[in-house]
Specification:
Elements: H1 7-15, H2 19-24, E1 25-33, E2 36-40, H3 42-50, E3 56-67, E4 71-82, E5 88-102, E6 109-118
Parallel strand pairs: 1-6
Antiparallel strand pairs: 1-2, 3-4, 4-5, 5-6
Amino acid sequence: MKIPDMQRWVDIWNNSDFDLFIELYEVSAIMFSPEISFVKGNKNIAAFLKNQVDKIDISFITEEIFTDYGIVYEEGTYQYKKNDNQNIISEGKYLVIWVLDIVEKQEEAKWRIRCHIWN
């Protein structure tokens, strides 16, 4: 099974397919963002991200990935740019914790984000 990385996230963002964010994040996932203290739950995270898509362009650059028994720790740098003029709004580091989640009535497990932090 392929090790996940934030390119999946960026592809969903660039295609504005926010229902896929619900599938990408674990049901009880938590996100810490520079704009807010935190968002909890995959549906709330998807709603938060949907409100941001017209405002910013986001990129994540993976620097390291560590795997450990069904958990992947991914760290790197991120950058936000304004959609209208590409001025940098924010940049810094990120950490994502992916977990291998067995989906009901499916034989194959899926990688989902449990915790997503950037600041």
